[in-house]
Amino acid sequence: MQNDVVQLHLTGNMSNSSSSPSSSSSLSMELDESTETRIQRLISEHPVIIFTRSSCCMCHVMKNLLATIGVNPTVIELDDHEIAALPLSDDTRAAPAAFIGGTCIGGLESLVALHVTGHLIPKLVQVGALWVCFDPPFAEETRVQ
């Protein structure tokens, strides 16, 4: 399981750092972008993205849930003043906040609720973050006639 966590300093210093040197995420930064614009661009560029604070245990649980399904989300660690720039839904007040297909689905409770109700996997398939084979190998042999 690959866990790319990127710390972006969206304000001030423009350096990117990643916990994994083999990170393939395109996390380019434009010097003239505002924090809000950068966050919106990242949300639109990544089918599944989690914004969090460093050492957030709820983010770890969110990543593990998605990994067990087969999705490797982009995880962005933000400072407190950067978190204020997140376009959160009314029921999401702070990080971690997950976005799927550009839409804020909320925090850990919302992610688990989507999974338990059976809505998470279809949503992940819809945004192209997960591929599901509906006709498994040997299906012909196991079909009831």
Protein described:
With 145 residues, the protein is an alpha/beta fold. Strand 3, helix 2 and strand 4 form a beta-alpha-beta unit. 26% of the residues are buried. Helices cover 33% and strands 17% of the residues. Mean pLDDT is 77; it is low at 13-26. It has a single domain, classed as Glutaredoxin, CATH 3.40.30. The longest helix has 13 residues, at 57-69. Belongs to the glutaredoxin family. CC-type subfamily. One of its GO terms (cellular component) is cytoplasm. This is Glutaredoxin domain-containing protein.
**CATH-defined architecture:** 3-Layer(aba) Sandwich
CATH superfamily: Glutaredoxin
CATH topology: Glutaredoxin
Q: Describe the strand arrangement of the main beta sheet, using strand numbers.
A: 2-1-4-3-5-6
**At the first level of CATH, what is the class?**
Alpha Beta
Low-pLDDT parts are 13-26
User: How many helices?
Assistant: 6
Report on the biggest sheet: 6 strands, mixed
Helix content: 25-40%
As a whole number of angstroms, the C-alpha radius of gyration is 17 Å
Instruction: Write down the overall geometry.
Output: globular
Domains, number: 1
List how many beta strands DSSP finds. Answer: 6
Give the averaged pLDDT, no decimals. 77
**Spatial separation of the terminal alpha carbons:** 40 Å
Which strand-content bin applies to the residues?
Answer: 15-25%
The H/E string reads EEHEHEHEEHHH
Category from helices, strands and their pairing: alpha/beta
